[in-house]
């Protein structure tokens, strides 16, 4: 027996209205093929007996020779009372290659016409004749179609009555060449239009061009598309939930009786927008999992002839939730007519009924007519289509709109008793209509625009009558049936999203009133705005639409025969589509932000519908390919959940059930990264930027994204009005591993990304310390237990060092003291193991020794990075933790520092970083109490004018003022801090006593190891400058806290180390660098007479006319510290800043003033000789007193250095000639411009030398 819903191409198609017939696929022709609905009603293929009888009837019912066709009457039971259906088989053989589905070509040929090759050869001639006859239309058919257009209203009424009399009877006339296929009953009317191809040709390629593959579009959402094979049994076993093996039917479906479907939707073309059911098809082997979670382009809008743009949704929202004018949004561009108060109320007449709806009618008339109206409306949408159904449908839409306005008018004008009565009538009437629609069992092929309009009419009537979703089951049922139909027509909102994301469309205005896809999108937007979330437990305000959709998807999942990956993807597509549609406002304009609240329950349902855990019993039976694909799908799901929070702005506080599923899935993997992911620490731990937990990065693994969600939820819980420690601890347990981590060793090093188990555990510990710092000490102890450094391989050791570094950095940034933790003990263990191995390998295999050196350098580098955490801009200056310096000292005691240059550099970098941080906390070094001379020798206090102040009303007996003036205003906390810094600095000073000599040995190695006769490169000199800075810095602290050490014993007495350097430029640079550092680090050393002479001697070196390095800095420092009080520095052309500022002399200023400074010093020496001459009266022998002898030594050394520089230059070179000119000028200024210096015996040798230059 044939199925109840039969669509056979032929003359009957003209009787069906456009939009009501079964929709054909593009390029399939007007009609062809036989389709039976097998999805709802029980049907089977034609039996052999029935087939034989049909063929006999086919031969006996030949039509007239004029038509050249056949007439076949097929008897079947009708909808009511055994009526007959006369079925036509016209054009059933017309080719429809474009409509074939991949399911038909599983083996390369269509299932509808599997025949042997011999049969095909025999039928070639017959088929060519059939195809030729199919091109000719029936004259009778054409004339009948043409006649229908010219019928009068009475003739149409007569036809309609005749159709009612013949209810359930269809007569189809076949053209010549029509044959009946025995397997025609295998295809249902509700199946895809491409389910039946009608021919046996192979499926053509649908790609553009010859042999070219279509380009993949760039995605703004997920970083990589994922293609899954739906027929992969191993992948099905890997992803299918355990509950799918024992699936039961949903209770709502078990008792549901399938009724015949009366209205079939015609498949005209793509404009109607009806999505073919099961678009991917049963035979579609590939699922493109590329759901785009990107926001819609703002600025899109619905057209002015749509429900939303006409302001009807805005009117309904204002009716339900009145907004004050000051807070109301601007009115839509075209306001509906219902918003205008008319004095005359319009009337609406129901089609084919003597029933008028109007506010002019009485209240009792409306109560009487409303049930009749709804009953007739229900009969219309489930009955047979009318000849002029489009006209009737427009009339019904007008009547429905009128009924809504009349209902609103009576609800506003009538009293409370009448309102209750009206609400009761509306509830009963609409309830019957909902029941009628529910029992009619609409499927995809029977749902059209009118069906959706009636569903929304039901919703709007209930809302206008005062029903609420929280208290009315009736309104809930209305929402459920509308959502059911929307998901029936477009599962996953695929067509809606295709329409919204169509980048080829130039006009971004949706104004096609005949598009069912556009109407679906409009209804979704209406539901989002009409259904408002309510406050539940204070944690979330989930939108009620999510719960309705979830229940509908659960019903469909329960009804499915088996679990499929396509069904799970429909859930995610629905979530993404609804979030995107929430960007549309109540005025139909797409904004840049979504408006729908979170719905984690539907996400939880989607996650429970797929197996994410690693099942060892199943995984061992599968190949690696499906397991990797499963992990890729798992990573995709985690990213989707992150996008829900990051892009769609879902509140995360109520997401614990979802995160708990992720926690269980990662727990079965021992917190290891997925198979396709690399292993590394998360970015927020490497950079110590917890703000990155709110940012998506394509480099993040699935576990890192999961941890970021946990962090976001933890922060949200802490920022809540009533934070609960229990809730926070429960949240942190999600990332707390319960299983122990495998200890890697040299015999069993980590393979693949197994090291990620350690990285992820350290990330979890860092999160716990960040969100719950109260137990940070135990967390550090727990982290140390993850490693056994002594037996680990080198890769695991490096992971251990990095783990310790990141955790320690985080504790410093969190301002958690390190003394109570195991950081020092952990570092000590690492250093002791490496030092022991270094000693054992010394003198043996160099490769193994370099491996230990590399790890030691890594330890020193980690210490430097930890110390750099104190430089964070948000941190206050703090003395570095001494436990870190203790580790540096342990390494400094070993010869490994001086044996390897790279290790020595890392060691010095750590020391330099530590002391730089120390300088930020410790008070700057004390300067000599010398008031500088300003304005060429005038005392600074001489320029101060007396200032008079008026009377000040101050109570000198005030105890608070007395305490303040007595110095007790400094808080005890500040005193304790100062004392703590002094204690720490004293400890560091004692330790630096030995480290200073260690650094000196490293510096000495650089001098001794440099080749003689070779000028150093700028990089080498800069490197030595850094060593000198570190050396002097350590020495200054050691001398400060020592009673016996002096600058001479520690530095100046060992200058022979670099004075033996052959390069005079480098040697001079080192001398000035050492003097500058001593003067900066210990300004009080200038008060020592020996050191003062050393600094003045260096001053003369700075005046030699060569390339400037730090000479300007030295002069700025000595001028400021001396205050131009020294006899040689008086009246120099320089203006000092007020005390205690330091003069900032640039290199350019120094270069232009260098000769002026030298002339001023020579003038002072000349004056000193003149004073000696006046005192002794001896004009022949000058410079014999102590002071002038000292000055003579300064000048002699100056000219010696001048000559040495000249001698080091290549003779005859341009550089040498230029320097020679400078030397002549200096000597002329010295010996000719200053006659006493020119006749000074101490400088007679240099007088001869410069004259020899001429």
TrEMBL record:
<feature type="compositionally biased region" description="Basic residues">
    <location>
        <begin position="200"/>
        <end position="221"/>
    </location>
</feature>
<dbReference type="Pfam" id="PF09462">
    <property type="entry name" value="Mus7"/>
</dbReference>
<feature type="compositionally biased region" description="Acidic residues">
    <location>
        <begin position="116"/>
        <end position="131"/>
    </location>
</feature>
<dbReference type="InterPro" id="IPR019021">
    <property type="entry name" value="Mms22"/>
</dbReference>
<feature type="region of interest" description="Disordered">
    <location>
        <begin position="1"/>
        <end position="164"/>
    </location>
</feature>
<protein>
    <submittedName>
        <fullName>Mus7/MMS22 family-domain-containing protein</fullName>
    </submittedName>
</protein>
<feature type="compositionally biased region" description="Basic and acidic residues">
    <location>
        <begin position="90"/>
        <end position="103"/>
    </location>
</feature>
<feature type="region of interest" description="Disordered">
    <location>
        <begin position="189"/>
        <end position="271"/>
    </location>
</feature>
<feature type="region of interest" description="Disordered">
    <location>
        <begin position="926"/>
        <end position="946"/>
    </location>
</feature>
<feature type="compositionally biased region" description="Basic and acidic residues">
    <location>
        <begin position="132"/>
        <end position="143"/>
    </location>
</feature>
<feature type="compositionally biased region" description="Polar residues">
    <location>
        <begin position="24"/>
        <end position="53"/>
    </location>
</feature>
